[in-house]
Specification:
By secondary structure, this protein is mainly β. It is built from no helices and eight strands.
């Protein structure tokens, strides 16, 4: 795939394929957008991103579980990898808490 930046965090939950649109936003609106996810677990999500986001960056997510249920999660970037064949990145986000601050979205 490409070069990888990774923290020491490792997966503890089973992942499922989850190719759905996800909205994301950085603290203080330093970045935001919409993208597709690759997979999902109780502990985190893997995203396709147009830009590099550094390790340990806090990120707010809106994840559609079905047509009527969208969950909000706060997470941190635990790994980032450049996709060589595309001008994109993949990132692993570890969920931190269930609540999302008022200023998100």
């Amino acid at each position: 795939m490409g070069e990888s930046v990774e923290s020491s965090d490792r997966r503890n939950n089973q992942r499922i394929n989850f190719r759905e649109p996800v909205q994301y936003q950085g603290k203080d609106l330093c970045f935001f957008g919409g993208t597709l996810s690759y997979d999902l677990s109780e502990g985190g999500i893997r995203l396709s991103l147009p830009d590099f986001i550094p390790l340990d960056t806090e990120i707010f997510l809106k994840i559609p579980l079905d047509r009527e249920k969208v969950v909000d999660r706060t997470g941190r970037v635990v790994w980032v990898q450049k996709v060589l064949s595309m001008d994109r990145y993949q990132a692993g986000i570890r969920f931190e808490r269930l609540d999302v601050p008022e200023y998100a979205f």
